[in-house]
Amino acid sequence: MASPDVSGPVVLSGEDPRSSNLVQPALAQAAAPPMGIDLHAAPFEFRGLFSGIRVEWATLGLMVACYGVWAVALWVLWPVAPALAVLTAALATGFHSSLSHEALHGHPFRTAWINELLVSPCLSLTVPYRRFKETHLAHHSDPSLTDPYDDPESNYLDPAVWAALPRWKKAILRLNNTLLGRVVLGPWIGQVSFMRDEWRLIRQGNRAVQIAWALHIPGVIVVLALVAVSPMPFWAYGLAVCGGLGLIKIRTFLEHRAHEKNRARTAIVEDGGPLAWLFLYNNLHVVHHMHPKVPWYRLPELYRRGRARYQAANEGYVYRSYGQVILRHLFRAKDPVPHPLWRKE
Predict the structure, then answer these.
(1) DSSP 3-state assignment of 319?
(2) Domain annotation covers residue 136
């Protein structure tokens, strides 16, 4: 989110400020779908009885399944296998985040309020859907990617802000830049920072933020009421929420890097296993950024048909699997906390 201390777009060192609102040629070429792929074809879609209604049944089906698995964890698994119940609820909570991401990009319906309604029972309880939507769409401004002020999802800090932090806070943030730290500490650090900023905006009278929270609270009440009448206790559900948020942090850990070129800031993790499904193939993140309206089930084919071009576009920011990510970064930071390319005034 833009800082009141920063006016206008921030330009990273070595980047032509005149190109900040343009798609770079290499990126534009890669963003064109590979020959033979129609992004508007819809093998998993169905037009209903009413004109103009389009349903992506694959996505809608996963939403129903997500809530079903969540309910099984709370009512069926907890009495017989508590540890498995917490793990299953964590998977459902993390998967709900991936489905919310699909919803804000226009899936499974083209009608925004229907998509919002479908994911409004926020299983993680933590972030209002409209705030997620607003901040995430701001994040999709590629010229601002990784900007400590203008990219709401950046984990970098302005070096001046970093220099002023006490040692204990620097130590925590350094640990947060390892994969293990991001999974364990990241949900707490992120939520505290998010709530601090949200409270400031609410006190300033930001109507959009106030409305987002007002719409969020009924969904939270529904989820908590269901937990209250289920066999699973609140402390166990709290563990599940932390676990689900931690799982999502595996995906977001290295989605972006500091780089002087916009197009080289977004990662590819060539994984097709359980985590790729949990993340709805958002591990092919550069493909998603180039085609943000494309549903999750089209991303693997797009990448397979245009693999060389996507890798050329992001200049080889590629991991072969999440296994490789874990081996490299479980205990070792991928990045420094202060933005390494931040222009000093």
Answers:
(1) strand
(2) yes
